[in-house]
Amino acid sequence: MLMLISPDGIDQFLVYAAIVFFVGLYIFFKGFEIYRRYRILALTPGQPIGAVPMGIVQVHGKARGNLSVTSPITHAHCFLYEVKVRAKGDGGKDTSRLASDLDSVPFYLEDRTGSVLVDPQGAELDLFPTMSRTLRPERNFVFEVLRRLSRGREFAPASSISDEQLLAYAERFLARQELFGLTAGVPVDLGSRVVRVEERCILPDHWYDVCGTCAENPTPKNEQDRNLIKKGQDEKTFLITWKTEKQEESTLKWRAMKYVFGGAALSIVCLGIILAKLGWLF
Predict the structure, then answer these.
(1) Beta bridge partners of 107
(2) How far, CA to CA in Å, does 246 sit from each of 22, 204, 243?
(3) pLDDT of residue 113 exceeding 70
(4) pLDDT for residue 206
């Protein structure tokens, strides 16, 4: 079998194997970083907002505030929106283009004991999508059924958005991004691509769990507005999620395990292939 592969082919195969080996290492160490966040979350019990101390804290409350931004797809008034557009495939080529947009304003998290200001900049987000839809160039009965079922997971404002409007938005959005070889201002033809558009928001009067660093509010409005939760300078853990504390801990724990064991397995397999190709294995 080896005799059928040219030396150039073997060299190219080794290069690919080496690349995947280092990708596996990155995934492996990324898993330990996720596990560290899981441990911080597990060791930081939830506290009433009215009694939060300085330092790393975890609180659960309802989002409130006077300032807001408008999300670009569902036009929801929210405190934060994040939009991701991914386009896969182009005339049979295995290429992918990705663009993202995010905007936010500070908001208050409130429970029965009080309220605390939250600055969401730099936060890791685990939010329920206000809109999530996949557009495919070829339509068939099965896809139409799945698309209609998926719309049941969207909030009401998203149901009025047609596929054509969403595709036109994705084309304009990708054209503004100088990512993956795209030139800003140049139209992007998505007619032959599978396009996925997701929008996630922090919405008023919805409950969220926040784990971050509590510091002094530099611009308090009154005596009860002295604290601010944000991304810390020393401790970088800053998470905003719609899940409960236990649900988020479980999510991070299983994600860490998948990264650690998956990355290790990938690197070990690729290392074995490289050593075998070089003749260093018995």
Answers:
(1) 118
(2) 33, 23, 8
(3) yes
(4) 93
